[in-house]
Amino acid sequence: MKNKELADLFNKMADILEFKGENPFKISAYRKASRILGDLTQDIEEIAKKGELKKIPGIGEGMAQKVEEYLKTGKIAKFEEIRRGVSDELIAMMEIPGMGPKTLSLIHKERGIRNLSELEKALENGSLIDLPGMGEKKAENIKKGIELLKQSKGRMNLGMAFPVAKRIVETLRERTGSQKIEWAGSLRRMKENIGDIDILATGPKHEKIIETFTHLPEVKQILASGETKASVIVEGGLQIDLRVVDEDSYGAALQYFTGSKAHNIRLRGIAKGKGIKINEYGVFKGDRKIGGREEEDVYKALGMVWIEPELREDRGEIEASQKRSLPILVKESEIRGDLHVHSKWSDGTSSIEEIAQAAQKRGYQYIAVCDHSKSLKITHGLDESRLIKQIEEIERINEKMKGFRILKGIEVDILGDGRLDLSDQILKRLDWVIAAIHSGFRQDREKMTRRIIKALENPFVHALAHPSGRLLGAREAYEVDIEEIMKVAKRFGKALEINAYFERLDLDDLHCRKAKEMGIPLAIGTDAHHLDQMWMMSLGVAVARRGWLESRDLLNTLPLNELLKWSYRSR
Question: Cβ distance 418 to 453 under 8 Å?
Fold first, then answer.
């Protein structure tokens, strides 16, 4: 789809405008359009064909015209106009996490830096430190950003890869009639970032599967196409590899190509001790093949129960399988509500009523509207008076609802000293309060930890939103003693959020498992600012599953009355 290409282009336009010091409202408009288009689940070309571009919430006439221009010509004239006088090297440097177009503009003007090589030399010789707003800490952060950028090259965020793979696999199943087609590798294990997408398939007609795959509408280039393998490049430059195997080897191949490497090495060691050989072709006892058609055959032959793909990281899952003590991982079908969405009242694109309708379509019993609070001015955050009006609107809508409840919530900012952005008097009127850090990311470890602890001590806070503050591939987690934060959350009976937004996935899987072991409840919120972002609940559930979480570990699986009982228990 062209969605990502357009999202990237609009974001680049915003960066260039910021580099040039242009009108902040223009910059904000392009960033908003970028976010909306990047999160659309519908193909933008299909929307355009129906003449419905302006029906996309947040896309006005001007942006719609630019989208149409790009779809027809592959270019946007306004982009060419904006980028005039800014070299490709400078535009590329705008991708460095932690620097930003304004800082780059300063460095370019004051030190004549034109490319990455010159920037790295200047950072090494210390010639940037005396620039306004720079200093040693800022320079060190830019160095980390460069390293982060280099590490992320050639890899893709789970939230970008998953929808592509899902769409392609579903299309292949539909067009070939074979249901034994599945993505494998780190994507099947739902890791937060992946390299290429690997797809495994079987069926009576191998050539039909290969032919269908290489002629999918998403395919832009065929790298290779043979009797059992094919590789293509799809829109966005993502490589997808397909392997077609015999039906009696499909299960063994799926297990083998899912990994992880560490998990598979352990399995092969166990197999060797039992006089068994396992590989991508099957399970063998001497020369006799004893399994391989189903993935379960591999584990059964080793005296183990089947292990969910998300657990296959050699983190104790093998021992748990041998003892028949694996967790019953939470399923998305068990989620009864989304505990973090944004509406038009702050920086979302939909009304509260529209959000409620979308939640009902997903089969939810409830949804928590958690708009930003007043200190986050760029998001049009709510002050006390506007929040009271929102509470009244939610109560009016709830009166009309049957079998569904909109929870009155807020994403309240934790200020630099740990105070909250809104008074206790207003917070106590809410069903669901999540406290969040949105500024002061560079505080030292001790100050940041104290700041968050003070917020968690507030009796009206229910959960800590996106606890580490990281943005995948763009911003590292802030300095904080997460272990101490978890102890405090346990002590005061607070929940920790699994923020399912694709650029966050925060908490990560390892800390989710730690929270489970400590008895700390977790709550998944999509942080959706657009209805098309609500699908990201799938990503939040994936993180939970990788963290060994069961239904009982998540507040989202509680019926409405039990959730409300939990949220009002200490008031």
Answer: yes
